[in-house]
């Protein structure tokens, strides 16, 4: 069901009937099960959740988008008739969500699929919501996009470097410490995109990332905003980036340079501090490492820190995601000043780019990533996004090169073999 974005949609007319049972799918990749219509996915290293169909759906927007979603989900789950024979996180009722970066503009979506297939370790399960159990078998392989053409989005490279220079000036004047600036790239095709094509390629090429698709937003994010599982909470913070060369020896030297870079360490410290400060009120104990590690991805390397804690209140994973968003890794420091500057000079609507994306089950456990290395399917094609953290020592040309590197995963995934 769909209602105007200005108001949450009501709950389903009848209670949802949810059944979860174990299934034996051997080594069949979960993405191979997805039909073209209405697929959702959240996968890493072959494990996670995929689904299709719509049993219920919420659209909301504005500053209450998270609380709207939490209320709707809790009411829907409370009325559901649930039979769960597996008992893992991600079994029973599961919703998938994607949320706008800012209060305005942008719509946020929470969807309950009719069918969900999950995998964790050697366990695979099937959840149905008010439908009969389907026959699980591979679907026909998706076709590559035809007539793929890329063009500048809201700003070309020169214009975006001017925006970066203005941000550096504002930081130097003491207006703020850090701001994350994004840009977009437009891809057009002769026919509507079959999103399963880039999903399969992203899952194969970026196994260490979380490959996702919810309501037209897809990508492979390296950044876990928050995971809540049985009382434990984890957030992976990425800030500070260097592009890989493809030469292993050279890349090791670059990793060492990144680990010593005062500019990147400063940017990373802001991001870690913002996450720790947001989680601290919800946790009885926390572990914040003193120094980051270098996360190696196929196209770039990041400074990374895993912040861990023990949750002492009843906050769901989505409520924790709300408390963390926007972190300094996607907004800046201080957050109010940074988000105001983004709205003033970035020159484009982010919509759901850099907002929380992920899933949640009936217990409130779930995983919410940051929608990075991502793109949005539109009526006119595909809109790709990339962003960079700007601090006082940032160089506009270097930031442009970094943004181009961050386009690579989705850009390559769209192209034919």
From TrEMBL:
The UniProt record lists the keyword Ribosomal protein: no
Organism superkingdom: Bacteria
SUPFAM superfamilies, alphabetized: ADC synthase
Keywords: Isomerase
Catalysed conversion reaction: chorismate = isochorismate
Gene3D superfamilies: Anthranilate synthase
Classification via Pfam families: Chorismate_bind
Domain spans labelled Chorismate-utilising enzyme C-terminal: 158-406
Enzyme Commission number(s): 5.4.4.2
GO molecular function terms listed in the Swiss-Prot or TrEMBL record: isochorismate synthase activity
Similarity-based family: Belongs to the isochorismate synthase family.
Name this polypeptide is given: isochorismate synthase
């Amino acid at each position: 069901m769909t209602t105007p974005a200005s108001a949450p949609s009501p709950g389903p007319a009848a209670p949802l009937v949810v059944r979860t049972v174990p299934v034996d799918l051997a080594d069949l990749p979960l993405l191979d099960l997805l039909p073209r219509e209405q697929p959702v996915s959240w996968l890493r290293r072959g494990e996670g959740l995929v689904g299709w169909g719509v049993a219920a759906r919420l659209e909301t927007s504005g500053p209450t988008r998270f609380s709207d979603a939490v209320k709707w989900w809790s009411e829907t789950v409370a009325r559901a008739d649930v039979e769960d024979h597996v008992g893992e996180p991600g079994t029973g009722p599961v919703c998938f969500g994607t949320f706008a970066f800012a209060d305005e503009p942008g719509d946020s979506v929470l969807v309950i699929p009719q069918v969900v297939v999950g995998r964790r370790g050697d366990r695979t399960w099937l959840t149905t919501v008010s439908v009969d159990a389907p026959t699980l078998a591979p679907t026909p392989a998706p076709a590559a996009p035809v007539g793929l053409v890329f063009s500048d989005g809201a700003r070309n490279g020169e214009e975006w470097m001017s925006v970066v220079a203005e941000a550096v000036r504002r930081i130097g004047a003491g207006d703020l410490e850090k701001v994350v600036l994004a840009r977009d790239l437009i891809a057009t095709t002769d026919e509507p995109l079959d999103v399963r094509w880039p999903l399969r390629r992203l899952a194969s090429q970026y196994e260490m990332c979380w490959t996702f698709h919810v309501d037209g937003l897809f990508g492979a994010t390296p950044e876990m905003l928050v995971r809540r599982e049985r009382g434990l909470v984890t957030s992976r913070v990425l800030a500070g980036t260097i592009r890989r060369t493809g030469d292993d020896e050279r890349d090791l030297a670059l990793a060492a340079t990144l680990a010593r870079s005062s500019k990147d360490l400063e940017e990373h410290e802001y991001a870690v501090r913002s996450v720790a400060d947001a989680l601290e009120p919800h946790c009885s104990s926390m572990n914040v490492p003193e120094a980051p590690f270098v996360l190696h991805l196929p196209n770039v390397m990041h400074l990374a820190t895993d912040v861990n804690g023990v949750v002492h209140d009843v906050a769901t994973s989505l409520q924790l995601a709300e408390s963390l968003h926007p972190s300094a890794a996607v907004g800046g420091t201080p957050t109010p000043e940074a988000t105001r500057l983004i709205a003033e000079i970035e020159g484009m609507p982010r919509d759901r780019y850099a907002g929380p994306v992920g899933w949640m089950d009936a217990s409130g456990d779930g995983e919410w990533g940051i929608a990075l290395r991502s793109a949005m399917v539109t009526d006119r094609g595909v809109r790709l996004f990339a962003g960079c953290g700007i601090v006082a020592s940032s160089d506009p040309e270097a930031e442009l090169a970094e943004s181009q590197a961050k386009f690579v995963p989705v850009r390559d995934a769209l192209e034919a073999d």
